[in-house]
Amino acid sequence: MMESALTARDRVGVQDFVLLENHTSEVAFIENLRKRFKENLIYTYIGSVLVSVNPYKDLEIYTKQHMERYRGVNFYEVSPHIYAVSDNAYRSMRTERRDQCILISGESGAGKTEASKKVLQYYAVTCPASDKVQTVKDRLLQSNPVLEAFGNAKTLRNDNSSRFGKYMDIQFDFKGAPVGGHILNYLLEKSRVVHQSHGERNFHIFYQLIEGGEEDLLRRLGLERNAQQYQYLVKGNCPKVSSINDRNDWKVVRKALTVIGFTDDDVEELLNIIASVLHLGNVQYGSEESGNAYITTDSQIKYLSRLIGVDGSVLKEALTHKKIIAKGEELMSPLNQEQAASARDALSKAIYGRTFTWLVNKINASLEFKDSSFSSKNASVIGLLDIYGFEVFQNNSFEQFCINYCNEKLQQLFIELTLKSEQDEYEAEGITWEPVQYFNNKIICDLVEEKFKGIISILDEECLRPGDASDITFLEKLEDTVGGHPHFVTHKLADGKTRKVMGREEFRLLHYAGEVNYNVNGFLDKNNDLLFRNLKEAMCMSENKILTQCFDREELTDKKRPETAATQFKTSLAQLMEILMSKEPSYVRCIKPNDAKQAGRFDEVLIRHQVKYLGLMENLRVRRAGFAYRRRYETFLQRYKSLCPETWPNWQGRLVDGVSTLVKHLGYKPEEYKLGRTKIFIRFPKTLFATEDALEVRKHSLATKLQACWKGYSQKTKYRKLRRSAIVIQAWWRGILARRRAQRRRQAAETIRRFIKGFIYRHQPRCPENEYFLDYVRYSFLMKLSRNLPKNVLDKSWPTPPPALAEASEHLRKLCMQNMVWKYCKTISPEWKHQLEQKMVASEIFKDKKDNYPQSVPKLFVSTRLNGEDINPKVVQALGTDKMKYAVPVTKYDRKGYKARSRQLLLMGNSAIIAEEAKVKQRIDYSALKGISVSSLSDGVFVIHVVCEDNKQKGDVVLQSDHVIETLTKVAICADKINSINISQGSIKFTVGQGKEGIIDFTSGSELIVAKAKNGHLSVTAPRLNSR
Predict the structure, then answer these.
(1) Total domains in the fold of the chain
(2) Where do the record's region annotations for Actin-binding lie (predicted)?
């Protein structure tokens, strides 16, 4: 029973929100939902209303055993479940012979469709059955996949979102067996046929047909097994979804159509229409020089002509012209490219929308119980309403306006019926009914639907009036007519704060669930929902049997303008209200725990919105306005009789006297309860909790009775003390809060004064009057700096600091540059790093020392200047296995006579090799290398100094290289002689042989000249490239 679960309420919450101690707190409401959700308890009551949270995973609570557990059991004797609501409605229908209805609501993805399936499954399994009844049960169940295929689609919020409202009547005979059914559909989202938002899909049936249809079927329909080929299926850029298996769903739908009673001809005609919609979407237009549209895709017209049985030329003309009747004459007016595309889309929507209505009627015909001995007038009915919940999107249009109007009506009905059921129960039990204050949203319903002055009437008037009617003129008419209404606001009528969040093409309605901005763009077109006359005529010529029923020829002769979409919806909604008012309602409120469809994730912000939109707190407040708990005397006395010596173990008198004795013994105060004719009414949940807690203590032993009484007394005393203390603390705390508010105001005023005074004295030296302002200026600079830091090491921009922060700004700039350099170094590749390391060595050796160094900086060092074929194979053979690190062509000057000879300088692992064609002329070990001398001018001459004691060496080597910076950097790295390179001014001395020296003189000139001078020295003249 529900009472038995109260002992674990701290862990799993309460099963009925009515028993929340703080029933006015939204925080307590959501926390109770969270506790139960984490324990996989997705169902909770608000009185007789069931709140269901979508778990996004399979729970083992829908088995046949669970169905049997709830079958025929009192509503509160088992834990909350959709089966309990289903069974309670069924038993009420059987015993009271009054029609029932179950209203399921919630936003997309909350689980409404699944809830309605569970209700149907419960009746299919638990109700009595015969062969005929079993057929009806099967058809009731199989109608779901068919309606889902044609009326559901993948949206951003839900992979199987119902894009229409559905009300289904299930008819039962006198035995309680389901014998028939009837479905009403509301406001199919036809615009989805021609357009889908990014990440959304068209209706499931299109993808199921393409993915699951047999090859012969697709060939006959002229379709390809690729959804990307069809314009109506690519706009959402989401042809496949991981959670949807279109191929398997196709098999389910085909089987369901057979079970429902569709013949092969019916199915073929239906699929012809679905394929024709896809082909219509692929009809493309071109534009003539005159601006008139013409069709560029004749192949699509051929398919359309064959599929819907209309002559191709008639179709072509209907898709590019419109018929105008003026003064009794019929004129064909050509359409431009944009108008023709709109006409094509309008035809697609009309075909699909009317076909869906035909499909629902066909299902209704199959569900009708055809037995002469059974009269449908004598049938008992359970209605099942699966309809869209309150919707608030970033951009709300005509569809959201209709949906939210529907929810306003349902909320009005919901509150009225809830109050009525409460009042009826009070009157039946002889309890005085206390009027309940609640938000009556009749004022909003009247704003929308009132005759002549309501929004729908104004919209219809704009649609029907001659002249240049547009969405903007509709908005202006609204401002003129209902501009003074307290629940209506536009950009023009709003205050400055509201205008910032409203567009000029929007109006705002203050719904029961919150404010919603509606964009009027498209309102008139969607409300008119018109189809050109010649398109209707073409469809009336169709040989497709379904289309001939969808497009009646009487439409062509009927001079009366068809009702607008809003008026049709308003009328059907009024009929729905009449249906629901005639039935005993049960409610299921579905909640989506998160937008990511993840199991176990509880998004408190999202759930708070839904609690508000579903009006759950208002419902709880109405339910708690009187008595929170009520039970029949026999049930109450049977459970709690052990708590009173006079009623334990058995009470022999009247039940009402026994309960009266028991509650008096338990210490109930007169204001906490009332005794009716057959039930006890308890006002506060804490009273029931105290009773349940006392019973839990009593269970252990009767010997604890005195202890329990003493605890009850002490707790009451403690409660009174706490209450008195709480009053004192509250008064004290309110005083503190008031003083804090006053202090904050004073501080705010003082801050403003200091800021103004600082601004006045801002040019003076720092003083008490301007220090606050100057600190703010520094803070502003630092915040500006944080938003405008340089993006890379080459970006030298830096905000100009105030004078007081110049030094700090410079430090920050340097730190910022160091950080960017560090980040840059982390991202460079190994090859580039090696290049930079060589450049660093070259910089260390030559920067500001040698004239031609700057010209070498932008040129990358290469791994070698000689390819394999440039080096004689005999030289390679002589080098053996020693790996060559670098090779460059050089010019060697003889020690005697300084004759220039071409040579190759090869850098190995341990030595430098000077080679002449096929011969190794000299090997210089790095260990014998004393140093290298080079001039400061732009020439490429350098001297390799070697140890004279080495008999292998003939003396120092004079070489010249066109890449002297690169060559010497490579030699310095390979020989590890970075610090042994000497850059000389004027002349270089070198050893010619044993004890002999030579001299190289360097002078500046206009061009490079290397020659032997008259004094016997080697003379090098080089141009100066830059001044150091």
Answers:
(1) 4
(2) 573-595
